[in-house]
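Following up on my earlier thread - several people asked me to post the actual chain instead of describing it. Fair enough. Here it is, all 241 residues.
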Amino acid sequence: MSENTIALVTGANKGIGYEIAAGLGALGWSVGVGARDEQRRDEAVAKLRASGIDAFGVPLDVTDDASVAAAAQLIDERAGRLDVLVNNAGIAEGWPDNPTALDPEVVLRLVDTNVIGVIRVTNAMLPLLRRSAHPRIVNQSSHVASLAFQTTPGMDRGGISGGYTPTKTYLNAVTIQYAKELEGSGILINLACPGYVATDLNGFRGMLTPAQGAAASIRLATLPDDGPSGGLFDADGVVPW
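Reply from S.P.:
Thanks for posting it. Predicted structure:
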């Protein structure tokens, strides 16, 4: 079994996920690049390796039970455990998306990736995380998921979003429940808000770089054993619910 810290980042072939993988790899960690697109996954792994990072590809579709199970088996066979899981994979289908015009099928796709996908991957990886001396889980949330921000008069949090935004609020709520169940286990689970990052999720309209957006996740992935669990954070600190 490898003595290096082993991390898995989902949706790591591009954007924020790639930069999280790069940041963790720069610490000397072995990083699994989870992605469903084989070509982009291979290209990301090659780029990371070229920069001196111990990266390996993990075929992973977070919406597919068999794919997730195979990913867990791959990591088990490679390292025998998992130290850090970063659930970064997510989708958005159009913006703004007024709730009165929502297609229920679109909402189901969003929930399946942004919420159920996180549950699916987390539960599959938990046996491996329980073998770690310092297990950490980071779930990728968003400032737009904050009900406090959404209900503050005059605060612009991305306009109306009946699809994507509520899935991240749902993820926040689920993560709190994980933290309650895992209390005392040594597994710390938290939510990261990357900020308004220029990625294909928003048509590259964001003001931050993917590397800047990765900062919160990297910090939460490297928390000490007495660090928080069940919290919502950005690069500057606590984000209100």
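The helical segments are 15-25, 38-50, 65-79, 104-129, 147-150, 164-182, 210-213, 215-221. That should answer part of your original question.
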